[in-house]
Predict the 3D structure of the following.
Amino acid sequence: MARELVRRSLPSGQTARVVMSEAADGDLAVGGPEDLLTSRRKAVVAGRWTWLHQVHGTTVVDVSEPGGGSGSLADALVTATTVAPLAVQVADCVPVALISSTGVVAIAHAGWRGLADGVLERTAEAVLTRGGRAAEAVVGPHIGACCYEFGQDDLQNLVDQLGPSVRSRTSDGRPAADLAAAVRAVLDGLSIPVAVADGTCTSCDDRYWSYRATGTACRQAMVVVLEEAA
Ligand SMILES: [Zn+2]
C-alpha cells in the first residue's frame, strides 16, 4: 500500500511529505472515471491533487491553488501552496521530488527522453523562481537496469547526452540503460543531494505496475505535498 518515502519538518514550520502509491492502491493513470480516481487519490494523500497529461517533455507548471493546473500537458510541477498535492504517474519512468527548506516543493516525471532534454534542470529552476532552492531530492521506484534493455545505438545516444554512468547491463548481460544513475548524474550536476532513493525495480517487483514488463496502461503515483504544522 501507499507509503511515505520522506517527511520533513521545515524551518518555515511546514511539513513536506513525499508519498508513493503501489498497484494495491489501484490504477492512478489519467483517463479513468474521475470519481473513482478521486477516491483513490484521496486514499493515498488527502486534498485536491494537481495531476498532468504527461508527454515526456520539460514543461513545469506553477501551482498556486489546490488542484490548479490539473490536466496540463507537462511533466513537472512546483508549488509553495500548502495542501496542494502535486502528482506524477509512472510505470517504469523515474518519479523525482524536490524539497526546499523555504517551503517550496516540486515533482517531475523523468523518463530517458525527459532526462536527456533537461526536465530535472527545468524543475530545479522552477523551485528557484518560486523563491526556494532544492535542498534534497527523493527518487521513487522505477525500472532498474536489470530489466531495461536498450539497443546499442539508442544507448550510445543516451550516453552522449547523459554521460557514461547511464550505460549498464540487464541481469542477463544485454545492453541496458540505468535511469537511476542518470538521475543521480543530473542531480549531482545541480548540487542537489539525494535524501532517499527507492531502488525497487518496477519490472522485477510485483507491487508496482510496469509498462516494460506487461505493457500495462496502469500507473502508480508519487505525490509531494506541503502541510501546515499540526
Ligand atoms: Zn528489474
